[in-house]
Amino acid sequence: MPEAHSPTEKRVRHFRQILVWPLQLMPIHAGSQIQKHWELLQQSGADNPWHEIDDVFPDDPARFHAQQYHEFITFLPHVQRFLYGESRTARQGRVAGASPMRVFRRRDIAAVRLVPEPGGAPLTLQVARVDLHFFFDIDVVQLVVEVAGDDLTLFQAQDTLYRFGRAYPAGWDETGQGMHCLPRVEWLGADGATLAASDFEKRDKYLSFVGRHRAPCIAAHWDFLLRPLVLDHADEPGLIRYRQLEYYRMPVIAYLALDDPRALSRSDFIRLGLLTAASEQSGLPYADRHVADFEQRYCYDRYWGDRVDGPPTRFLCCGHALVMVGDAASPVFTGAETGLLAQFRHQYFLLFLIAHFQKASLLMFSDRLVEALNRLDIHHAESVKEFKRVIRQLFEIFLRFTHRYWFHELSDLAQSRALFRMCTDHLGSAALFDEVRDEIREMSEYLDSDSLRRQANTVVRLTIVTTFGLIGSITTGFLGMNLLAAADSPFPLKVWYFLLTLIPTTWLTLYTVVKSKRLSDFLEALSDERLPRRAKLGALIAVWRHKKAAG
Question: Does residue 446 form part of some domain?
């Protein structure tokens, strides 16, 4: 960074960015509804960098802090159970199982070095956490990466928000650099050594991967961060495999503390709220008409205005991003224990994580429905049976998701409730939920109707067999009225009588089953009083008439 700055340059005294990247986990146990992927992560070798953390909500009162208490009481009881589970006392006598959310963290990454331009001065940010959030009964994991820095220019903050969280390049410019992403990103260890670096410039690698697998390739530094998780389409083996669910641009929640937040122009807020490319120009990133309702759609201004008591604070939300802008001189905004900075890292982060978890889960259900349809071969009975099993399994999992994880309200606090609603509305989660629910319901109803149709056909055939078998039953009953006195006959003669009756009866029963559909049509015609005798006779003859093949 340059040593001298313009006195009018807008400075971000403290900057934080949290990336929340939802990924779909592939099944590890065929036929099992609940896939506990974190157990494989726990059983990995000594070189596994991920370790489960138990201080999210510790049972030991001595380790329980005031901030965790404030975080806990922010949410409604059903959300509390989702985030924190139940106490060991409350779990006694209940079915043992994993907590609703399991968090794993790696501590080997201390910082990230961002190179904004080839040959330019790098920007180094501290890495506050790198976590993986697993969820019980849902095959979704969320990678969480939090970075922080002090005394950045507004341009640097906007540029980092826009270009850092990119899973792979959108394309390449004439110099061969990846478009809309940083030329170089490096993960740094505690000693400052480079642990992994990006490879956005390797155009042939990304092109060949898409050409071979019909799926995007993940950049090298993100691939390193997720290890031992492996991209499902990659050729290398891996116990836990994942797929991309959403757009290659990772959702982000950001915190900006400025000397004078009111000095930001409308175009500055639009670039922050919509995560557009950074610019030092004063013009709008889009046409006036396109952003005419920006304040109404994307701004939460409960504490923003000339006459509002307290420090000015503005929330910007477009679904893909949630940005907090406030006064760096205010302890209310910058307090790391009780201020908005603490709430940003805890309450608002969890709010954002839940909103994207819900959408990611719905996308996962939709993807698995499509995959089940792609595997269906109606000409093979086993494929049809497997399809039915998968659909019924998805329906059961979706029901559990609906009652365990799907909710429209997560807090009674007006600000948290409003921001969560803004986020889910922009994400379109409610419409997506209705769409996935209808798809699964239609599939389930089709399977139920198909089963009922098969059962009805079976009942019809059995009814026909019973009806025509009634004739034989009466006949044999009549014959059994001592017309043939075989009770005192020799045993071989009895066996002969038995076989003489059994063989024709068995053949007649099987033949009736074969002709049951046509016999059913004949009985229906016979019972119709409106049909003439000739038509009824024709229906009887049609039982033995062979249909000619069409064409």
Answer: no
